[in-house]
Amino acid sequence: MTNAPLRRSATYTILTTGYTLSTGPGVAATVSYVRDGDRHVIVDPGMVAGRNRILDPLAELGLTPDDITDVVLSHHHPDNTMNVGLFGQARVHDHKAIYHHDQWTDRDAEGYELSPSLRLIRTPGHSAEDITLLAGTDAGVVAFVGDLWWRPNGPVDDPVAPDHDLLRTSRLRVLDAASVIVPGHGPAFPADDSAPR
Fold this sequence. Notes:
Layout: E1 11-16, E2 19-20, E3 27-28, E4 31-36, E5 39-43, H1 52-60, E6 70-72, H2 78-81, E7 91-93, E8 97-100, E9 103-106, E10 113-115, E11 118-122, E12 131-137, E13 140-146, H3 164-177, E14 180-183, E15 189-190
Parallel strand pairs: 5-6, 6-7, 13-14
Antiparallel strand pairs: 1-4, 2-3, 4-5, 7-8, 8-9, 10-11, 11-12, 12-13, 14-15
């Protein structure tokens, strides 16, 4: 199966651009909104300086938290998950299941399609549970990678990664599928030769 989504009808907005210098003390997640048809998806609603950093840009798009149908968690570190509770009506997706209200549905994230333009793939390296959302847009495939890259400059050697070879393998997989990368704690950047491996 190809990594890339089959269609190119998704759109996205970065609601807030995250930051970090290291593993703390100041850290904020890059939180994104992705739409494809009737799917309204939030990616990594993690730590931010205030919830308004997520909710105000969402309101500018004409959306409330209850309009969000799905939340994708790239992995389970608190800096990427802290505000998942804002979206109480959404299905929450991680590496192994979908959670909705009181329902827990096991499924492997690898190849799971939220829609024909939105596909999850496993990209372990920063943690064993990392996943990436690949969104097919009219401008190419955008990869929402969590902390596979923290920001455009990497770090090349992730100080918390348990397996740097696995991290590199996952990075190469994403670079093969995507044209834009949205990292866990920084602005989007091109999936080209300038991306750290």
